User: Fold this.
Amino acid sequence: MTKKYSDILIRIGEWNEQEKAYPVEAMVDDGSFFEGGQLVFDSAEVLAAEKNNEKYGREWFDALLSEPIRRAYNMARGRAQVQSDNFLRVRLWIDPDAAELHAIPWE
Assistant:
């Protein structure tokens, strides 16, 4: 028997020089769309946390899920609790022109 998942897609755009951030948007599987998020991070700080998986994951989680993307994630988690026994699939799409982000170990 296959598990049913709730789903959220988080998209990171290419670097926006004017905003000094990567734009982030999210879509929940009910069609809700959230935009206006920004990914900003201190690469030295994140890399320093790389040896500690929990801290490394928390650094990326907090950087990626700025408002309103955190609201989208919370909505998706709530849907997962109700509709799919807490199974939530988080899909990450990184713009092809954000090559520096493709080199990061996200998992």
